[in-house]
Design brief:
about 350 residues, alpha/beta, Aspartate Aminotransferase, domain 1, Aspartate Aminotransferase, domain 2, 5-stranded mixed sheet, binds 4'-deoxy-4'-aminopyridoxal-5'-phosphate
Length: about 350
């Protein structure tokens, strides 16, 4: 602790990112990265952008990338915001759009960055409990007389549970809260969910956030984006331009653009992850694991007879890393990223050994 810290730093409990160990031959199933590489066209575009032009600042408005995203989603370019990973997009959204007199509502079990942003920006919030089966219930987010949200944020599919809220339920929440911004964090939507993006034309209070880190296998490039009606996007631009006018560097802009233009690679690589997920759920079920239904590139699983922390530690001894959370309600679960088929085979083999004692 330093006496030079400002008051806000003293009070902060920062987000702890998933571990990025430096060991070779590790089966790394702890931070939901894509097991296969990004589009070869994205890699080629990054290489091509690696030249003398790096002495110049990048396009602060990311016009080419926004135009490509707008085209893909059938919206206007002024309905797209881009940032340095969806974490940054979320951070700007919390400041620009989710800070109101009434508290911000989000599920009690969800992406743990949300309470961190609330603390950083002094946003009052209310954690709305998930159902016993970890489902998010749309009815819990509907206004009840004077009790209504100042804004709402949730991940869909949710993290770390992987559970999906049906699009009709997302719409119910958005429609019932016309005076509150509803931010749907769709970091994992491409692995089997139906995106809420088509709803943005009808709902001025809806903002949908996506990332290139998961389904586009570009976590190392740090690109995220938001889609909503122009006034919401303008609010985000105001915060961004008060913070860092150039969040995306030239290589990120080039790589992300080429990735959006390679729809076939995107579809195929998501399909492969989904197929591996189906097979892994079956294999873990055969070992006695209970697995929550997942629409993400990870699964949330527990074994009724084995302690999750001990399982995670035993896997680690075998150079397999999965994520374990200490929060009491989910402390019996492991969150396991869908890896390659070979990685999942190694995981299942190791778990079989561990359970056999
Ligand atoms: N939202 C959710 C729900 C996530 O799990 C993550 C990844 N940790 C993010 C957003 C942030 O992803 P990124 O900053 O890599 O885009």
């Amino acid at each position: 602790m330093s006496r030079f810290w400002s008051a806000v730093v003293h009070g902060l409990t920062p987000y702890v990112p998933g571990e990025q160990p430096k060991l070779a031959d590790l089966v790394k199933l702890n931070t939901n990265e894509h097991p296969y590489g990004p589009s070869p066209r994205a890699l080629e575009a990054i290489r091509a952008a690696t030249d003398d032009s790096l002495r110049l600042y990048p396009d602060p408005n990311a016009d080419a990338l926004k135009a490509a995203l707008a085209q893909r989603y059938g919206v206007q370019a002024n309905q797209v915001f881009v940032g340095n990973g969806s974490d940054e997009v979320l951070a700007h959204a919390f400041m620009a759009l989710l800070h109101h007199e009434r508290p911000l509502w989000f599920p009690d079990i969800t992406y743990s960055f949300y309470p961190v942003y609330c603390q950083l920006y002094g946003i009052a919030h209310r954690a709305v409990p998930l159902a016993d089966d970890f489902a998010l219930r749309a009815e819990d987010y509907l206004p009840r007389g004077a009790e209504r949200a100042g804004a709402i944020v949730f991940a869909n599919p949710n993290a770390p549970t992987g559970r999906l809220l049906a699009l009709a339920d997302v719409e119910r929440i958005v429609a019932a809260n016309p005076d509150a911004v509803v931010l749907v964090d769709e970091a994992y939507i491409d692995f089997g969910g139906q995106s809420a993006v088509p709803l943005v034309q009808r709902y001025p209070n809806l903002l949908v956030v996506h990332t290139f880190s998961k389904s586009r296998a570009l976590a190392g490039l740090r690109v995220g984006y938001a889609i909503g009606q122009a006034p919401l996007i303008e609010g985000l631009e105001r915060v961004k331009n008060s913070f860092n006018s150039y969040p995306l560097d030239r290589l990120a802009l080039a790589g992300a653009l080429a990735s959006v233009q390679d729809e076939a690679h995107f579809q195929e690589s998501c399909r492969k992850v989904i197929a591996t997920r189906t097979a892994l759920v079956e294999r873990l079920g055969a070992l006695g694991f209970e697995v929550l239904p997942s629409a993400a590139n990870f699964i949330f699983a527990r074994h009724p007879e084995h302690d999750a922390a001990q399982l995670a530690a035993a896997l680690r001894e075998r150079a397999i890393i999965v994520r374990h959370f200490k929060q009491p309600r989910i402390a019996q679960f492991l969150r396991i990223t869908i890896g390659t088929n070979a990685q999942c085979e190694r995981l299942v083999g190791a778990l079989g050994e561990i359970l056999a004692g």
